[in-house]
Amino acid sequence: MSHIHVPDGVLPFWLVALGWVVSALILVLCLRSVAADDWTRRLPLLGVMAALMIVGMTVEIVPIGYHLNMSVVAGIILGPTFGFIAAFIVNTILALFGHSGVTVIGLNTLVIGSEAVLGYLLFRGLLAMLSPRRAGWAAGGATLLALVTSSFLMIAIVGAANLGLGTSSDGNPGALGVQNPFGGGLLVWELFPEAKAPAPVLGVGTFARIVLTLGSIGWLIEAAISGLIIGYATRVRPDIVPGGLSARPGSAGVARGD
After folding, report:
1. Residue 200: inside a domain
2. What domain range includes position 105?
3. In the chain, what's the furthest Cα-to-Cα distance?
4. Residues near 232 by beta carbon (within 8 Å), at least 6 away in sequence
5. How many Cβ atoms sit within 10 Å of the Cβ of residue 59?
6. So what's the pLDDT on residue 253?
7. DSSP string over the chain
8. Checking CA distances to 78, which of 15, 171, 190, 246 falls within 20 to 30 Å?
9. How far is residue 121's CA from residue 176's CA, in Å, rounded to a whole number?
10. pLDDT one digit per residue (tens) for the chain, 258 residues
11. Rounded CA gap, 142 and 123, in Å?
12. Domain count of the fold of the chain
């Protein structure tokens, strides 16, 4: 839900440039902090988690227009450094497939990357307050808080861009139309056809209320799924969950995180 679905040429240049600069600086710091042996050990897992994020972001929960990011799960398992790198890889691949614009990769990396980093930190904090055996609950809580924060970050970006949301391709802000360019007008769908006269453009405040209302349902769904995934991983492969139970269920030890 916090993924910025905006095509190229909509956001102002200064904003997309700032997104690229900040995300590039963070990526450089991440790459410089990774040791060579970490690449050898973590690269296969990085690919698996990036694939999981791509699958989640391409499957929409239709009634609420929400897709799972799975970024917090990636952050918990990969750690904040590789989690942010995974966010950049995923956003780049999705942009090349038309899932938002290429120029928005930097901003989307910041938004989704913040979920991975913040989710990891929140997970470790909640796990310390609870216990390693409550890793699923900690992951669910971390996911919920991280998604709420990233959604506000996305709303702030939209507000900074001063977008006129709700405007259709023909310039009529009251009508949302889709027309087949090869059909000569034979195939036309128009939502709200009665709104032919110019109407007030959807403001950032209204946009925020829509995102937060529909997003709250998606946050709870993703928090539940993340909790189930991390809870299961803690029982089956606790060695890949930093702070989770050690080698086998029932063990009293705690694995060291990144």
Report:
1. no
2. 13-164+217-240
3. 69
4. 136
5. 10
6. 39
7. --S----TTSS-HHHHHHHHHHHHHHHHHHHHH--HHHHHHHHHHHHHHHHHHHHHHHSEEGGGTEE---HHHHHHHH-HHHHHHHHHHHHHHHHHTTSS-GGGHHHHHHHHHHHHHHHHHHHHHHHHHS-GGGHHHHHHHHHHHHHHHHHHHHHHHHHHHT--BT--TTS-TT-EEEE-TTTTTSSEEEESTT--S--PPBPHHHHHHHHHHHHHHHHHHHHHHHHHHHHHHHHH-GGGSTTSB-SSTT---B----
8. 15
9. 41
10. 678 888 888 888 899 999 999 999 999 999 998 887 778 888 899 999 999 999 988 888 777 778 888 999 999 999 999 999 999 999 999 998 888 889 999 999 999 999 999 999 999 999 989 888 889 999 999 999 999 999 999 989 888 886 544 443 344 433 333 333 344 444 444 444 544 444 445 567 777 888 888 888 889 999 999 999 999 999 888 888 876 554 344 443 333 444
11. 5
12. 1
* Residue found under tokens 């349902």: 217
Amino acid residing at 213: T
Say which CATH number the domain at 92 has.
1.10.1760.20
Residues 112/142, Cβ–Cβ less than 8 Å: no
Nearest alpha-carbon partner for 202 in 176, 183, 227: 176
Q: Which of 209, 99, 109 is nearest to 150 (CA)?
A: 109
Burial class (CB in 10 A: 0-12, 13-18, 19+), 53: buried
What is the per-residue pLDDT for 202? 57
Place of tokens 């991983």: 233
**Token output for 214:** 């529909």
